[in-house]
Design goal:
Strand order of the largest sheet: 2-1-3-4
GO cellular component, one term: membrane
Subcellular location: Membrane
CATH class of the largest domain: Mainly Alpha
CATH superfamily of the largest domain: N-terminal domain of the delta subunit of the F1F0-ATP synthase
Structural class: alpha+beta
Pfam family, one: OSCP
Protein name: ATP synthase subunit O, mitochondrial
InterPro entries: ATP_synth_OSCP/delta_N_sf (IPR026015), ATPase_OSCP/d_CS (IPR020781), ATPase_OSCP/dsu (IPR000711)
Number of domains: 2
Length: 232
Amino acid sequence: MAARHLRSGLPLLRAHLTASESAAVTQGSRGFASQVAKPTGKQIKVPEALYGGTGNYASALFLTAAKGNVLDKVETEIKTVVEASKKSPMFSQFIKDLSVPKETRVKAITEIFAEAGFCDVTKNFLAVLADNGRLKYIERIVERFVDLTMAHKGEVKVVVRTVIPLPEKEEKELKETLQDILGKNKTILIEQKIDYSIMGGLVIQFGQKVFDMSIKTRAKQMESFLRQPLEF
């Protein structure tokens, strides 16, 4: 069923994502463009503009890590922090509890991650978050930092929701279509998610674009059409 919907929907996907729309995807606030080359020397910029407090922190971390040539290491380490907060209720509570004195938070964070062997960029960044009482936003900051590293590497994450796993042939066809739309210089990373709520078909999402070919949405559209008054 998903394969049939994909085959019938890919021409529509091509038509729906025009060249201008593709540019909007790659240049949006959560797009995936990599408009600058790998940072060298002093010419280091964030690949896309992020806004808000978490965006500012993520951008600052990106620039510092890029200058130190430790982007991959920093990404791995801060992802580890997020995973630790998810697995340990005690650690999660600690980083969110602002009643803990600032000095205690900073000291604990510095010692914990020094012992873990984290690089100076990551340790200093986490210490700043602890000092400013912003550790509770670490998950969102990391998400936005990863957006920057993916954009920097020319990677595009595509989430495909179906009720059954997408067959390899259809996944390959989807990937080729997206490659044509976004450009051969992009690396397409497809993440499949099982979502029984869509009832069938599939939903494709990347950047701020959502292409909905689900049975659930089509059923709602049909219901809306049938509820319209008849004109004689």
